[in-house]
User: Fold this.
Amino acid sequence: MRIALFITCVNDTLFPDTGRHVVRLLERLGHEVVFPEGQTCCGQMHYNTGYRRPAAKLAVRFVRTFEDADAVVVPSGSCAAMIRDNYPRLGGSGSRLSRKVAGLAPRVYDLTELLVDVLGVTDVGAYYPHKVAYHPTCHGLRMLGLGDRPYALLRAVRGLELVELAGATECCGFGGTFALKNGDVSSAMGADKARHAVESGAEVLCAVDNSCLMHIGGTLSRQRSGLRVAHIAEILASTEKEDALR
Amino acid sequence: MSATFLGIPPFPEAARAAVNDSRLRHNLRKATHTIRDKRGAVVTELEEDWERLRSEGAAIKSHTLRHLDHYLEQLEAAVERAGGHVHWAADAAEANAIVTRLVRETGETDVVKVKSMATQEIELNDALAEAGITAYETDLAELIVQLGDDLPSHILVPAIHLGRSQIREIFLDQMAEWGVAAPEGLTDDPRALAEAARVHLRERFLRTRTAISGANFAVADSGTLVVLESEGNGRMCLTLPETLISVVGIEKIVPTWADLEVFLQTLPRSSTGERMNPYTSTWTGVTPGDGPQEFHLVLLDNGRTDVLADTVGRQALRCIRCSACLNTCPVYERTGGHAYGSVYPGPIGAILTPQLRGMSSEVDEALPYASSLCGACYEVCPVAIDIPEVLVHLREEVASGPGHLGEKAVMKGAEAVLGSSHALAAAQRAAGAARNLVPRHLPGMAGAWTDTRDLPGVPAESFRQWWNKHEKGQS
Ligand code: SF4
Assistant:
């Protein structure tokens, strides 16, 4: 299958490895990945902070860039949710943007949805001999409704021991500009999440979203906890030949 | 006489103090998690019925709000038919003036009160005090707050921020001044505290001839008012006095008695985690020889019709004040209710207060941002209010106003960079080149990040740059 990759601005700029892992994983599974050059950002930060017009412009750009794709994979739960849940609210009802979004949004998938629902695989042939905890990010959990998919994928990884994370469904406190506007509350939430992650006994905390991981990972790093964070793509892309941690 | 929210700083600042108060954090965490777990259990046991009740509740409320004028007139006629009197109050001042006049006409200077958010919203107790009338709160938690000259911090459990030992101290210090004193040797055992309150209140119920209440629901076709509570103190207020004055927001209407069926299932489950509510009191006008012989209903607008005019924001008026969103909110859990500077705290407060008051103050402008948009509030709301949607909608209003110049500049800059893939690529190359120059601690607003968290390192190569090589390598 030919899959268009929407890498998202944060991943593109700060976490290019995630994109490389997605490409490596999908190519290993025998699919073709394309990267439409015109892409930039889904507009989530603008939208969530109250800047609707710039968000709408970015939505138009996204639609233009991806409208011909059979499937779009987004290795960021919150960006996938932005496109699927919020784009329809951006244009007025019956507007050109709304019509185009209605056509495109059902073909936009988070990585775990693409794998399980579209490509029909849960065992992606990965090898990752480490203790891993999964943090179901708010947007992955409540807006996308990823449910068991990420767990099923992780359970099928050879060598991986999945450990339970207390308070898993609670927000890590990132929330985009919330982390800046309400730094104290955000930090307090991040500290609790980091504590639960450390107490889980995991070596690696993983999620479908690098933004949340940046926030939790930044907290863990400041605390010198030794626990590292990893996007789920990194784990699923790992094989015996290329164990990322070795 | 009683404290007010006046002078409380905007949320981020007020929250800072709360976050650093470890006793408060402990009290809140314990209380919210206990109710949250109880709620979860009794909601789950309904299985798919819950979702059905939830959408029915939302539909009833939305329908009523769409035809509010009709149902209000129906309610007025029904109440008057049953021997009650209806008064219309456009704002807080008008409502307070009406209630003050009605109390004066009874010749009394003391009134008992059933816990009511509407009367808190209009700061009725202060208005009455100015007129020389003392209002006594009879809900246990509300009594604690009143005795402690404190502010409520939760819709359902106004004293949620206090621990038992703090409550004991308040009783010992203050009860005597307000009536029957606390017994000597009072311990902080919950039963001992409840008994002290019972004795204190009993005397008050038997002595006071005028009562003020709110209502959870007002049934339009029969003119019936409904109060749900857990202690029975409300029922005492509603049945013992000679005169009853109820102050009710105009959005509290349901069309028929049958509609209550939905809410009497969802409200107790959402608020206290109980399957059935302990005390549900209903009254329709007056009944000769039984209960209050004089009944007044004050219908309160106070900004509600303005909210109704906003097609996105109006869903906030569906709220049945169950407080499930407060108990599940990770932000509320860490800040408590006072930080919101509003009678309605937590997620519902963050969307309702700025709509009712208008966003002309810093406090109100900060409220729509007092959320990480995690969506937990929407998930638990028994009338399916999409709180995150309204938060973003209100943020838009704030962002389109004057001020916030720094933020606007940042957003504009981001718009320019993200407006073209070439500009983004150029910015990435610049960031990659300057990657070793990023300091560990950033100034200004970004300092909120670096105070407690490390920044990720900027990679030498963006994904885009890598992709171009990858592509060439393959062809
Ligand atoms: S917004 Fe919903 S959850 Fe919150 S208090 Fe109102 S009804 Fe309850």
Remarks:
- The beta strands of chain A are 2-5, 32-34, 72-74, 108-110, 131-134, 161-163, 204-207, 228-231.
- The pocket of iron/sulfur cluster is lined by residues B 270, 319-325, 348, 380-383, 385 (CB under 6 Å).
- Chain A has two domains: 2-118, 131-244.
- Chain A touches chain B through 66 residues (CB under 8 Å).
